[in-house]
Design a protein that fits this description.
Layout: E1 7-8, E2 24-27, E3 33-36, H1 38-46, H2 51-57, E4 60-62, H3 64-71, E5 79-83, E6 90-94, E7 98-99, E8 105-106, E9 109-110, H4 126-130, E10 136-140, H5 142-151, E11 156-160
């Protein structure tokens, strides 16, 4: 059980990146530091996520430069990182929606050629997926799946990156749906 509270730092670095940059720090289960800008903490809490859920999911704020390193292109904005538990996959929510070549704003971004993945909140183990008596709910987005996992006891809630993100370019269904060998895949 995590009993580490998020606290707002009273002192700022000598030269903050922006005047509104105040960092919230939390220790995650592995003892690593994660940082949340107050606007990001507010965003997550306005989605109904508890501090414990936010810590467990290891969500963190990052700069435009950090996002560019991870994504392989410049998103033109700082934002929130959503690591996918048990993988190296990360999605990024820029503070200012990214306008790509097609001219449409993107609220969330993925690494170049990163593909699609299922978001499985960190609260579930293989046993959750091996029991056919536990209902499975599939929703869109990391925050919604975390909220469901937090509040809907007796259900397993997983998330897709978008409504059409249940598939990849060459497969009709993501391999991530093969969560456990004990879990039957139904069309």
């Amino acid at each position: 059980m995590l009993d580490i509270a998020i606290y707002i730092m009273q002192s700022l670095p000598a030269e903050p990146l922006r005047p509104d940059l105040r960092l919230c720090r939390a220790n995650d289960a592995a003892g690593q530091k994660s940082l949340l800008f107050p606007r990001h903490l507010s965003d997550l809490q306005s989605s109904g996520l508890s501090e414990q859920t936010i810590r467990s999911a290891r969500i963190y704020s990052g700069t435009r430069e950090e996002a560019a390193r991870i994504l392989g292109f410049d998103p033109q904005s700082d934002g929130l990182f959503f690591p996918y538990p048990g993988t190296d996959f990360i999605r990024f929510k820029p503070d200012i929606p990214f306008i790509g070549d097609c001219g449409r704003p993107a609220k969330y971004l993925t690494e170049v050629n990163g593909g699609n993945r299922l978001y499985i909140p960190p609260f579930y183990g293989d046993a959750s997926f091996g029991d056919s008596q536990i209902p499975l709910i599939v929703t869109e987005g990391e925050k919604k799946s975390l909220k469901g996992a937090q509040d809907l006891h007796g259900f397993v809630v997983i998330g897709l990156a978008g409504v059409w993100c249940f598939k990849s370019k060459d497969k009709a269904l993501l391999e991530d749906f093969r969560i456990s060998s004990a879990t039957p895949i139904r069309p």
